[in-house]
Amino acid sequence: MSPADYRGQARFLTELDLVIMDAGGGVLDHHAQALDITPAGFRAETRIELKKGQTLDFELLLEGGERVRGRARVVWVTPDGRGCSAGAKITRLSWKDRGKLRRQVAGPSYDFGALARKTFWAAYWIVIAVAAHNIINHQPLTRMLIFKLTPIALALAVAGWAMLELLG
């Protein structure tokens, strides 16, 4: 079977630093690279020889400095002159680390922070528009006061701007 036969998901084409460890936690290769990453597995470029069916622990250094630790099983191996290229299927990964890896690969599904900011500003401007409508249509004394004070407020704003320009 070729490496393409094992693929069940689209790959995230990047290089991430990878540390390969044995089941006891001893480091086998701390300069490996992980490529073609998905939440289900990755391709490892390593200087050590791996065997098909071998279980290994790994640590991925994600972009942004976060680390993901888990266990994987080697599903294919292609030896080369410097070591090997191997496909690793992730068999154990914490829920938190799987989320980190998924965000790295696919990015967030939606930016809820930006949605909250847009919602806030929309509500803010709706309140301003409703208040202006109320003043214009239902508050004749307030409307008259605002119209009388508008030239004074504009003059103060221009004077303040001029002072900032002179002092700055």
Quick structural overview:
The protein is α+β, with helices and mostly antiparallel strands and 168 residues long. It is 40% helix and 33% strand.
Q: Residue share in helices?
A: 25-40%
How many β strands by DSSP? 6
Gross morphology is: elongated
Number of helices: 3
Number of domains: 2
Average pLDDT rating: 86
Molecular structure report:
The protein is of the alpha+beta class and 168 residues long. The chain folds into two domains: 3-106, Thrombin, subunit H; 112-167, no CATH class. It is built from three helices and six strands. The protein has helices spanning 95-106, 112-138, 140-167, and strands at 16-21, 27-38, 41-46, 55-61, 67-80, 83-93. It has a six-stranded antiparallel barrel with strand order 1-2-3-6-5-4.
Element layout with pairings:
Blueprint: E1 16-21, E2 27-38, E3 41-46, E4 55-61, E5 67-80, E6 83-93, H1 95-106, H2 112-138, H3 140-167
Antiparallel strand pairs: 1-2, 1-4, 2-3, 3-6, 4-5, 5-6
What key phrases describe this protein's structure?
168 residues, 40% helix, alpha+beta, 6-stranded antiparallel barrel, elongated
